[in-house]
UniProtKB/TrEMBL annotation, chain A:
Organism expressing this protein natively: Acetivibrio mesophilus
Family, per entry: Belongs to the GatC family.
EC numbers, comma separated: 6.3.5.-
Assembly behavior: Heterotrimer of A, B and C subunits.
Protein name as catalogued: Aspartyl/glutamyl-tRNA(Asn/Gln) amidotransferase subunit C
From TrEMBL, chain B:
The protein's name in its UniProt record: Glutamyl-tRNA(Gln) amidotransferase subunit A
Protein family: Belongs to the amidase family. GatA subfamily.
Record EC number: 6.3.5.7
UniProt keyword ATP-binding present: yes
PANTHER family, per the entry: GLUTAMYL-TRNA(GLN) AMIDOTRANSFERASE SUBUNIT A, TRANSAMIDASE
UniProt subunit comment: Heterotrimer of A, B and C subunits.
Length: 95, 486
């Protein structure tokens, strides 16, 4: 098993997710199945192959640095789960 | 024929000849939604009065000669991951249950500029992750041809609403087959355009290097009309291609003489359902009789497309979905101890099972120690797959095969086995990996009267040849005229 409980918990923590023990059991099995299948890629020799992260060779899209209209503050705050005095409200971060 | 059964171009003819007003047409579709969507469950949000008010305004513009687009007055609906200003856009997720975008996606804006009438927003797999529309937080959409079956996914609401006559046309998004496979399962036409041809600005991101918006329509003519409206360079999308886009309606030519069509042997292999295979090969024969040159050939690496796709798409998804933290918009957990716990509780409660599974897989593939073995490897395989297509397109203008290995399967049949569900995408994912355009058109029915889709794959930015082949097939067959009896 490449995906043991420790690996799963490590990855879940990186992704800011938590799971019950029952969920973990199922996820370990799912991940193991999927990753075993993915290992099929190792049949291919890619040592000399340049990775393609994007099919269109576009790089560094620049634009002029102009002042344009911004979205109004109330519109940007309208979906906030918690807000106060025109700001997003979050739990205390700094003591 | 009822009004709701008409194609977009037929609706347009009636509007232009003043036989039908935009309000009557809109009302007819709203009535249809009221009558059948309780059975199909394709809409998440229906705009009743807003749509009728818009219809009135569009009719006035038409009467004054101000609205002249072939889409003027046409009722349409959008997949719920396409942002619509002041209209809830949920991605079928608890995370965005109450999200109201303060802006329009570029495609929404473009369609409004053509004087279309928005009827509502359509169900999908949560964050477009799925092949059956069973992964929606809200509801399971059903296939109009048989309500015990899935409509396909992730644009299942888009496909089902078009097939059941609940909209003139719909937009979906396609990251690994999410337009083409549901269009195939629902017996309609679906196009995934070339990567970069349609702006992704305002499309909620899943896998940014492969996501692409496209039309789901009742025939190929409608597909060309909608494509004309939505393609084009957009400075708001840094991956938008700044090229000259053709008039796609000029591609609607009933002639395939001399067009070279390759059939990848791997696409008509043993795993393909025999009825699907037969329908696809019969369609190929029809095209051959009409003058196309057909040849079977080997497209290597087909079996590696799915593992590469799931690595790349999940890696990009894990990064894209990091933005859902319960701070600026979307769901926030009620109980938490501190900021870190707020993130964790919010994300754990707000995302569904499949989304979390993919975030985990993507995070794993990108994490220290695994990056080269998984993510980089997948990107190298992507290069090989792209090269294989390049070689194929040196010999052929179009590749032809099935859209999916089966017809629509039963609801619940594959839900508990993610890997089995992923394998459904075997013929569609390569097209996204290589950024190519793909068109699916109906080409037959299986013994249970479920639609079968024919997939045509083209060279980058050569949607026109796909439309031409699709149009020719349509003009010489009747499959596209069948409507689901619901």
């Amino acid at each position: 098993m490449r995906v043991n409980k420790k690996t799963l918990e490590h990855v879940a923590n990186l992704a800011r997710l938590n799971f019950t023990d029952k969920e973990k059991e199922k996820l370990m099995l799912d991940m193991e199945n999927i990753i075993s299948y993915i290992d099929k890629l190792n049949e291919l020799d890619t040592s000399e192959i340049i990775p393609t992260d994007h099919v269109i060779p576009i790089k560094n899209i620049f634009r002029d640095d102009e002042v344009l209209d911004s979205y109004p503050k109330d519109k940007m705050l309208m979906n906030a789960p918690s807000k106060e005095d025109g700001c997003f409200k979050v739990p205390k971060v700094v003591e | 024929m009822e009004l709701y059964q008409l194609t977009v171009h037929e609706m347009c003819d009636l509007i232009r000849s003043k036989k039908v007003s935009v309000v009557e047409l809109t009302q007819s579709l709203l009535d249809r939604i009221n009558a059948v969507d309780a059975k199909i469950e394709s809409y998440i949000t229906v705009l009743g009065d807003e749509a009728l008010n818009r219809a009135k305004k569009v009719q006035e513009r038409i009467d004054k000669g101000e609205a002249v687009s072939p889409l003027a007055g046409i009722p349409m609906a959008l997949k719920d991951n396409i942002c619509t200003k002041n209209v809830k856009t949920t991605c079928a997720s608890k995370m965005l249950n109450n999200f109201i975008p303060p802006y329009d996606a570029t495609v929404s804006k473009k369609l409004y500029n053509e004087d279309t009438v928005l009827l509502g927003k359509l169900n999908m797999d949560e964050f477009a992750m799925g092949s059956s529309t069973e992964n929606s937080y809200f509801k399971i959409t059903r296939n109009p041809w048989n309500v015990e079956r899935v409509p396909g996914g992730s644009s299942g609401g888009s496909a089902a609403s078009v097939a059941a006559g609940m909209t003139g046309f719909a937009l979906g998004s396609d990251t690994g087959g999410s337009i083409r496979q549901p269009a195939s399962f629902c017996g309609i036409v679906g196009m995934k355009p070339t990567y970069g041809a349609v702006s992704r600005f305002g499309l909620v991101a899943f896998a940014s290097s492969m996501d692409q918006i496209g039309p789901l329509t009742k025939d190929v003519t409608d597909c060309a009309i909608v494509l004309n409206a939505i393609t084009g360079y957009d400075p708001m999308d840094s991956t938008s291609a700044n090229i000259k886009y053709p008039d796609y309606s000029k591609a609607l030519i009933n002639d395939v003489k001399g067009i070279r069509i390759g059939i990848p042997k791997e696409y008509i292999a043993e795993e393909t359902n025999p009825e699907v295979k037969k329908a696809v090969l019969d369609a190929a024969e029809t095209l051959r009789k009409l003058g196309a040159q057909l040849e079977e050939f080997s497209l290597p690496l087909t079996e590696y497309a799915i593992p590469a796709y799931y690595l790349i798409s999940s890696a990009e998804a894990s990064s894209n979905l990091a933005r859902y933290d319960g701070i600026k918009y979307g769901y926030r957990a009620e109980k938490y101890t501190d900021l870190l716990d707020l993130y964790i509780q919010t994300r754990s409660e707000g995302f569904g099972v499949e989304v979390k599974r993919r975030i985990l897989l993507g995070t794993y593939a990108l994490s220290s120690g695994y990056y080269d073995a998984y993510y980089k490897k997948a990107l190298q395989v992507r290069t090989l797959i792209k090269n294989a297509f390049n070689e194929a397109f040196a010999k052929y203008d179009v590749l032809l095969g099935p859209t999916a290995p089966t017809t629509a399967y039963k609801i619940g049949e594959k839900k508990d086995n993610p890997l089995e569900m992923y394998l459904e995408d075997i013929y569609t994912v390569s097209v996204n990996i290589a950024g190519l355009p793909g068109l699916t058109i109906p080409c037959g029915f299986d013994i249970s009267n479920l639609p079968i889709g024919l997939q045509l794959i083209g060279k980058p930015f050569d949607e026109s040849t796909l439309l031409r082949v699709g149009y020719t097939f349509e003009q010489n067959t009747e499959y596209h005229k069948n409507r689901a009896r619901i």
